[in-house]
Amino acid sequence: MGYHIVVCGSLVPDPLQTLEPVQGPQGPALKNEMMLPAVLDPWASHALYEAAHLARTVAGSRVWLVSLGPKAKLQQVMMTVAQKAPFELVAIDGSASGFTDAAAVAGALADAIEAIPDLDRTRLLVFGGWESASRGASAVMQIVGERLGLVDQFQGVDALTVEDGGALRVLERIEGGRHQVSTLAGPPALFGWATGHLGEPPNNPQIGMANMRAIMPALQRAKPAALGAGPTFARVSLPKQTRQTRVVKDLAVDAIAKEIVDWIKG
Amino acid sequence: MRTLPISSAAEILRTLPDDAARQVMWRFGDRYDLQMVVQAARGVARGPVARMVAAGARNTHDWTPEKASLLAAFDESGITSLFVNPELGGYLAGPKNLALALVAFELAWVDAGAATSSLAGVLALEPIHERGTPAQREHYMRQVVPPAPGEGREQKRGAFCLTEPIPYVGVETGLLGGKVRVAEWPEGGEPVLQVDKRGRFITNMAFANFVTAAVEAADDRIKGTCMVILEEGDPGTFDRGVPTRKLVHQLSSTRDPAFSLKVPASRIIGGYTVKDGVIVPHYSHGEIIEAVFRRTRVTVGLMTAAKLLSAVEPVIRYQRGRFRGGDSVTPGSARHELGLQQRQDALHRLVDVWAAGEASASLGFAAARVFDEVDPFERRKDTYFAQKGLSGRAQLKALAEVNRDALEYLKLTRRPAAARDVARLAALEANELVRFVLLDSVANVLCPACKLWNTGQGATMMREAVSLMGGYGITEDCPGFLGHKWMDSQLEATYEGPEAVQRRQLSVTMTHEVFLAQFRQWIEEMRRIADAHPGTGACTLASAMQMWLWTLLYLQRTTDADGNKLYQGARQGVTFPLADALCWLLAARYQVLDVLELAEKGAAEPALAGALPGLVGFFTDLCHVQTARAAGEVGRITAELVFGYRRHPAWDEEGCRTCHQADELEALEEFIPGISGTARALGDVIEADGSHPAKAGPCARTEGLEPFLRMRAKMDGCLTGARLAKDRAAERLTQVMIPEALGYPV
Ligand SMILES: Cc1cc2nc3c(=O)[nH]c(=O)nc-3n(C[C@H](O)[C@H](O)[C@H](O)COP(=O)(O)OP(=O)(O)OC[C@H]3O[C@@H](n4cnc5c(N)ncnc54)[C@H](O)[C@@H]3O)c2cc1C
User: Fold this and answer.
1) Does B207 fall in a domain?
2) pLDDT score of B398
């Protein structure tokens, strides 16, 4: 039968860029945000790779990627993301910034998921990041789940395996590098992914070109998201001292750990 | 829009140009397939390739298992099968010159050896693609495509073997040492050939399973030369030879192989016919090589271009951070924030590197696009002539007629709309042979121009980039591997035909009347652009183009002081510098056109919205810098050629014929007071005692050269404003935001 896997994820500025908060006309933003190269949010990326992997192993599965982001930027990001795995895009035009209201974003995503034609709710697995590089509040996916009435929710997921008989075995991160194991009878459910265990698939233009046939029309169809006014921010600043990028070669793991410990101790 | 929105204080260059800008400039904004290919190649370049270089894989010229793993990365990311048409297992339809150029550009952004490794596979297939029989194409193209899971087929890789041990094939492709003989010829059956070929510097040779090799007949039963396909496993010796102890491109494999193999005659690329008991190959090795290099050289030119542009970000980062951490260098101070960017020369030199990188990328991608355009016309031309049974001289004669049509077409397009023979114009426009001739004459110039200038001048500019990093520049640790890139450029300038070959080819193709007729139109085009966009330096360029053209025509009809013809093949001292001068012009022209494209089409690109004015302003200034430099080169070269072959007058009877005699001047002084002083200021005067001013001879005469002198003076004036543009561009470099760290390991 296969699963209907919907992955929620959008873009964030490439993490190597200089990220400087500025006050824009619509509230806080990043300096030159629209000009910075963007990537699919790393947590959402893991969710997407896991979804593709699951879809490959369970025949008859389908994968959608639901993305709320500025349309033009989304298109650019798709040139890479679409090469990673087969999926169908549902695009919503709007800000992908973390300064929007999490509930409004979740609402837009849930609406978009509900509007997917042919989506079988009994087979539905909603994937996303348990946090994102733009917000990191672990809020959006939980609210999406609530809005869709998905009571089985797992956050910080590192593994999802299908057992004989169709039960789903889930590993969720807990303290101390350990995992909590749960077993679930089956869909529908929501999973906020941590990093999972899969590496980034190589780019494959052939997959990309196949995906793009549907992605371009999806981008053209993308409706503007109604996110409302959202919160107001009195002040936004970057913890500057944490962004001292240094490029060091050949450092042993122990030495890296020691340096971090020394830094924490101040 | 009449003027580009340039250089108001608010329009700074905000970030480095991104993919959205490049896609517009290099004209693949509407090609998602190519955009994906770019991302795929970039993933390999900035991932496994960069990690390998950073880990020191370049410190050996041996082909290691680690290096071999790159082939798998090429396979996985679609780079290997990019060249193959969909019906044979590839995925990209249509001509692939631009696609291959983009891949080479992305790979060489990190390491040109990796780019070469991937391209050598294409080079091996090109002879088969261009001139192979349908069966050969079907067989070999399919074999290089990575097998699909479960397909159970072994993937094959190829090498291209032309170059031979000294004294044979190098620059001079005519001197073939490789031989082909008839080994067996069964009655009524297919002949078996004995092929003996030694190669020198053959890329991919550590692992290639088949080789396309150039050989000459050493048997009365075979005619001329040809290319044959040799396979590992053919009876005889397939010796991969010793690795070349090369100092560059160590991520590719290069060896000196030796082959002594028996192969069926069906391996002759393009097939053969038997005439009076003699095997006559359909294509000579020369014909095949011409068709192959014509395309693959463009990609090489783009490798060096990528390296120049890749140097910008690491250099800016180095300059800004140069003094950070010093006791007296407090955060927020100019020294802390700008570092070496406080120094004008450091900025100006980086502007030069960037401008040269833009120009060479523009030239290279323009060349790739022209080949994409000409490819289908060329195929149809071949079919047309084959159907008509025209080949060799007969074909050349037929093409000469098409040339006349093409010239007529160009003439008609320049007439005012009312004075045109509209029907004739439409007929010529619809004539595919005319289209072919127009494009082909440009392609024949652009290919050697981009190979020559991008790599040769690119190597010089790469040295500038390295020097901007100080001692760091020539270490293995230099971010962006700039030292490696500098040295690598020298190979790019050498393989697939070194600079001399490109100059020789240009010296012929650039005199083609159809090219020159288009060149004349380009001069007018640059003036029009200058009118609408004065800041681009297009006017300077037009003046320099005019001067180049005048000089070419002058040299073609003039003799030197001894009465010897100036513009002729053997006189490389005349033809080669003029070829160099043309390259400067072409590169700057395409740079201007690309910026214009960005200014005009960028606005429709939402991803560029806020960045556009700053980008266009900055790129416009870079154009101005580059056109001024190009004009300077053209002025220097043409002046040397125009004057250099005249004999300087000496203080002898002949030389002094135009000198004034002091005693005559004194006599005239009575009637024309002051003439004596004026004559001394303006000309040469021989004193009464026979003495003369201390110099090499009377000043050189310039009769007949007045137009040149006028153009030269005008062009100098055209440089007005160029240095202001450079200052502005330099300032932008101090403001542009760059990422925190390079996007690939160091
Ligand atoms: C790393 C590497 C990889 C290579 N890969 C391949 C490959 O895969 N397949 C292959 O077939 N070859 C390959 N080559 C060979 C390469 O193409 C040749 O080295 C190149 O074409 C130059 O030939 P040559 O070395 O014999 O130079 P030469 O012919 O000796 O030329 C040296 C110089 O002499 C002068 N000169 C020679 N002839 C003329 C002339 N007519 N007019 C004016 N000046 C002239 C020029 O200054 C020229 O640069 C590779 C080379 C290297 C180094």
Assistant:
1) yes
2) 94
